[in-house]
Write a structure and sequence with these properties.
heterodimer; A: 347 residues; alpha/beta; 5-stranded mixed β-sheet; 16% strand; B: 391 residues; 6-stranded mixed β-sheet; two-stranded antiparallel sheet; 13% strand; globular
Chain lengths: 347, 391
């Protein structure tokens, strides 16, 4: 029900013409689904499939979810399966929603010490099939305490799996895989992406549509440079690629989809083809996702194929400011990505 | 009387008389059960409490005695092994508190659930693991219950969720979560969620109280009050030391944690309360630990030796049970001594195993990162060192 209602009537403002061009071959009545509705659909299907799955979080039930991601689920599944928790920024297969991942810092001890480490500490006796999901990273005007990206923090920990969907297909396929996974999975969504509609291919409409955790996707093929990103910045990378294509530079854009375990194979194969690498992320530069990718490139076969040092594009190394001009310049913009690509290619 | 003496002397002389005939002789001269008075519990928001008398059968009495003695000897052996540096790292012993773990277990079913913090060896045993597996885990060998991966604070068994390192904040919310699962699954199971007097001041415990009461979760919150949070006495740590009242809107009872029968009755009462769907309940067990906080704490800088000695001589839980059983003719001194001998042997054998068993193989360093996943590679100290990870 929620998916159908997600059919979008307004134009694809936030998604570039590039996507329109890519999908021009589809039937006129192609299904458009927003990221929010894709997550909702994924959870709905998994709640129906397995009665041990349930959702808890602040305002997920009667409020329909602070960002309306869980809309309709409480009406369908009731109090037992969809639980409103009082504010506490902590067998069964719970989906635990954090209103934002900034609040997960209140519960981070549980995520790391009780969830991530337990299977190992128990010598394989006690698995923890739990999903932690919610919006991560910068939003719009919510300032420093509500804008941090936790990809590097959670990606640091063995025992956790960390995924970061970009579009609707990612959102649905990854949340379903996360729910079915017998390990603790952190799903880093993005608030600004919730309302963005994307083409929903036929296979994504199936109740068994899963995207494997640990596998990246090449969103755009290219020959001159590899651009690796995750979450909302993937869209910016595609925009940058469209601009550069007009100048004869073809970028290969990789959507990581999973932060941990990272798909280095796909990245390495691409770099060995293009000989150049730029990483793009919303989080802070120090000890970040891009830093990890660069370190690993040096350790593997792709290093010898680099014609220039790998370059990182990241959020600015500051707590997120409030004023719009400052906020806009604290996250990677398309122009910053283009600049980095050109620098790397020495053009 | 003559027959009994003859039987006893046969036993003591180590003759290979079949135990059956001795038992036959013995049971003829012992009572089957006895009724005991137990201390009345202080109550909070409860009209009635647990009964003030209880019946102890000979069989149960012998079982509890053996279990408490096993925990006692196991902990003392761990002390010894630690001083020999065969056990490393953290080692928090519970000798003195045996009536708590054995009494709690006596009041619940194996299908109920239990979670506690780091003073967990006693509970690991009462929840069903062998002394061998426990000691071998303490010595970090592959025969340990967590294959040497967990150590003292991370032992798990069926319906026993450890063994956790972060007091209060970790255990109590997890326990409420397990109680949520109990309610969700609808099988009338309860969850015993333990924390100490030190942890009782942690904020997350109060969050757990709130949710448990709000959703009427079958959770028995249990404060094991041994008077000291590490080196801080309860008077120096808590604005209110009436731990059984700290649940505010949650009813509570204060229990003599040195009397195993008192603990048992209180647990039965609390479990029945939860199972009836009334919601959570809180138990404070007043107990005492002979050792310091951990093996690195001699335990005498913040309390006197006289105090420790006084508890030992007046309130030792094993002594209390033994006196009751002997005085009511439920067992003989010799019989109990024999159990002591058997327990000592069991502990010795377990310690032998724990000392001789090899450490886990290095190849398994990367095992058990993820559950149900195909094998993958785990990085070691540098990029050339790789470990295989198997679920």
């Amino acid at each position: 029900m929620a998916a159908v209602s997600g059919l979008v009537r307004r134009p694809l403002r936030e998604v570039s013409g590039l996507l329109k061009r890519r999908f021009h071959w589809t039937a006129p009545a192609a299904l458009q689904v927003t990221v929010r509705d894709a997550i909702n659909q994924g959870m709905d299907e998994e709640l129906e499939r397995d009665e041990k799955v349930f959702l808890l979080g602040e305002e997920v039930a009667q409020y329909d979810g602070a960002y309306k991601v869980s809309r309709g689920l409480w009406k369908k599944y009731g109090d037992k399966r969809i639980i409103d928790t009082p504010i506490s920024e902590a067998g069964l297969r719970p989906i635990c929603e954090f209103m934002t991942f900034n609040f997960s810092m209140q519960a981070i001890d549980q995520v790391i010490n009780s969830a991530a480490k337990t299977y190992y500490m128990s010598g394989g006796l006690q698995p923890v099939p739990i999903v932690f999901r919610g919006p991560n990273g910068a939003s719009a005007g919510v300032a420093a305490q509500h804008s941090q990206c936790f990809a590097a923090w959670y990606g640091h920990c063995p025992g956790l799996k960390v995924v970061s969907p970009w579009n609707s297909e990612d959102a649905k396929g990854l949340i379903k895989s996360a729910i079915r996974d017998n390990n603790p999975v952190v799903v880093l969504e993005n608030e600004l992406m919730y309302g963005v509609p994307f083409e929903f291919p036929p296979e994504a409409q199936s109740k068994d549509f899963l995207i494997p955790i640990g596998k990246a996707k090449i969103e755009r093929q290219g020959t001159h440079i590899t651009v690796v990103s995750h979450s909302r910045p993937v869209g910016h990378c595609l925009e940058a690629a469209a601009v550069l294509s007009k100048e004869g530079v073809e970028c290969e854009v990789i959507n990581m989809r999973t932060i941990r375990p990272m798909d280095m194979e796909t990245i390495e194969a691409s770099v060995m083809k293009t000989n150049h690498l730029v990483t793009v992320e919303g989080g802070w530069p120090q000890f970040g996702v891009g830093a990890e990718i660069c370190a690993r490139i040096m350790e593997g076969p792709a290093f010898n194929f680099l014609d220039a040092p790998a370059v990182r594009v990241t959020g600015a190394d500051v707590p997120m400011p409030y004023a719009k001009i400052l906020e806009d310049n604290s996250i990677p913009q398309v122009k910053d990505i283009i600049f980095a690509i050109k620098k790397t290619l020495n053009i | 009387m003559r027959k009994m003496l003859a039987a006893v002397s046969r036993v003591l002389s180590g003759a290979s008389q079949k135990p059956a005939s001795r038992v036959l002789v013995a049971s003829r001269n012992f009572a089957n059960d006895a009724t005991f008075e137990i201390k009345k519990c202080d109550l909070h928001r409860l009209e009635e409490g647990p009964p003030v008398t209880t019946v102890l059968t000979r069989e149960d009495g012998l079982k509890y005695y053996r279990m408490m003695q096993t925990v006692r000897r196991m902990e003392l052996k761990a002390d010894q092994l630690y001083k020999q540096k065969i056990i490393r790292g953290f080692c928090h012993l519970c000798d003195g508190q045996e009536a708590c773990c054995v009494g709690l277990e006596a009041g619940i079913n194996p299908t109920d659930h239990l979670i506690t913090a780091y003073r967990a060896h006693g509970f690991t045993f009462t929840r069903g693991l062998s002394v061998r597996e426990i000691l071998a885990e303490l010595t970090g060998r592959k025969g340990g219950c967590a294959k040497g991966k967990g150590g003292s604070m991370h032992m798990y068994a069926k319906n026993f969720y450890g063994g956790n390192g972060i007091v209060g904040a970790q255990v109590v919310p997890l326990g409420a979560g397990i109680a949520l699962a109990c309610k969700y699954n609808g099988k009338d199971e309860v969850c015993l969620t333990l924390y100490g007097d030190g942890a009782a001041n942690q904020g997350q415990i109060f969050e757990a109280y709130n949710m448990a009461a709000l959703w009427k979760l079958p959770c028995i919150f249990i404060c094991e009050n041994n008077r000291y949070g590490m080196g801080t006495s309860v008077e120096r740590a808590a604005a209110s030391t009436d731990y059984y009242k700290r649940g505010d809107f949650i009813p509570g009872l204060r229990v003599d944690g040195m009397d195993i029968l008192c603990v048992r009755e209180a647990t039965r009462f609390a479990a029945a309360y939860c199972r009836s769907g009334k919601g959570p309940i809180l138990m404070e067990l007043q107990t005492y630990r002979y050792h310091g906080h951990s093996m690195s704490d001699p335990g005498v800088s913040y309390r006197t030796r006289e105090e420790i000695q006084e508890v030992r001589s007046k309130s030792d839980p094993i002594m209390l049970l033994k006196d009751r059983m002997v005085n009511s003719n439920l067992a003989s001194v010799e019989e109990l001594k024999e159990i002591d001998v058997e327990v000592r042997k069991e502990i010795e054998d377990a310690a032998q195993f724990a000392t001789a068993d090899p450490e886990p193989p290095l190849e398994e360093l990367g095992y058990h990162i993820y559950s149900s996943d195909p094998p993958f590679e785990v990085r070691g100290a540098n990029q050339w060192i790789k470990f295989k990870s198997v679920s």
